[in-house]
Amino acid sequence: MKINSVKYFMKEAGRNVFSNGWMSVASMFTVVASLLVFGIFMVLALNVNHMVDKQEKDYEITLTVDENCTQEETEQLGRNLAAVTNVSEVIFESKEVRMEYLRERFGEDAALLDAYQGEENPLRNWYKIRCEDLNLSDDTVAIIKELNGVARVISSGETINKLTTVSKYISTASIWIMLALAVISIFIIANTIKLAVFSRRKEINIMKYVGATDWFIRWPFIIEGMIIGLLGAIASGLFIALSYEGIIGVFATLKIAFMDFIPLNDIMAYIGAIFLLMGLGLGALGSLIAVRKHLKV
After folding, report:
1. What is the residue extent of each domain of the chain?
2. Extended strands (E) in 146-232
3. Mean pLDDT score of the chain, rounded to an integer?
4. 183 CB neighbour count, 10 Å cutoff
5. CA–CA distance, 218 with 284 (Å, rounded to integer)
6. 204 or 66, which is more confident?
7. Residues 152, 48, 267, 264: what is their CA dihedral angle, to the nearest 10 degrees?
8. What DSSP state is assigned to residue 156?
């Protein structure tokens, strides 16, 4: 493709965008709306998956040791835990060590715990257990509960299962919603391009009469659609970025344990690329449909 031809295509496309006025704006906002809805579901899906992955990596089954167990019985419990199927690691923490962790978390207020040292320590010894296969964690918990010396078992498996289920629903919903919105966007962009084709029907006839190829005639309209899609993608991407940053700030103040969001730069690099591809693709596809049907005027 010659440079002069590219300049001509770009010039004609830009002129068409402005000459169609409100229809171009309407098409752009349709792309914005479509990508915003899709972006919201995508952000949710990515972050829920991120939270699930983090919970799975940090997943531990914690059990407290019966306070009546002797040191030998506590050590035997550790050996029994290590022999359980699906257990990959067993970590013992004495009540003294747990009290030191608690004092560190209290920071400047650690003096409040001075009365709970030595024999007055109300905490219990416990074991932390990691699993080889998280899908079998419920069975592992059931086995552990039956072991002698186990006072209580704490597991977050139910939370992980719920997050995984929510993630699947969000991913499925985002696909169907995007398909529906893509059809609407293509339809409106195609109608915008139809106006440009109709307004230039005489010029197109002359171009065809002097030997211009169909693709030479198509390219300005395709680029016009891509410009509309690109502008819509940029606008929706900026809106998602600003909104996401604000939402992260709000949840950061709440300090919810499992709410660990993907950093803004990481998620926008991914979403930005998808938005640009989708914006350009929707615009180009809408234009191709319009020009294909209305090229012969």
Report:
1. 3-55+160-294, 60-155
2. 150-154
3. 77
4. 12
5. 11
6. 66
7. -60
8. -
Helix, strand, coil tally for the chain in percent (to 5): 75, 10, 15
Q: Is the pTM of this model over 0.70?
A: no
In the CATH hierarchy, which top-level class contains the domain 60-155? Answer: alpha beta
- What is the token pair recorded at 63? 């059990």
pLDDT in tens, 188-204: 766 766 666 666 667 66
Specify the pLDDT at position 180. Answer: 80
Q: Classify residue 141 as left (phi > 0), alpha (psi -120 to 50) or beta.
A: alpha
What is the distance between the alpha carbons of residues 78 and 84, in angstroms, rounded to a whole number? Answer: 10
* Contact call for residues 258 and 51 (beta carbons, < 8 A): yes
For residue 291, give Cα distances in angstroms to 94, 183, 193, 226, 285. 75, 17, 7, 14, 10
DSSP string, 46-88: HHHHHHHHHHHHH--EEEEEPTT--HHHHHHHHHHHHTSTTEE
By CB atoms closer than 10 A (0-12, 13-18, 19+), residue 265 is exposed
Q: What is the mean pLDDT of residues 282-290?
A: 75
d(CA 185, CA 98): 58
Buried residues in 51-71 as b, exposed as e (16+ CB within 10 A): bbeebeeebebebbbbeebee
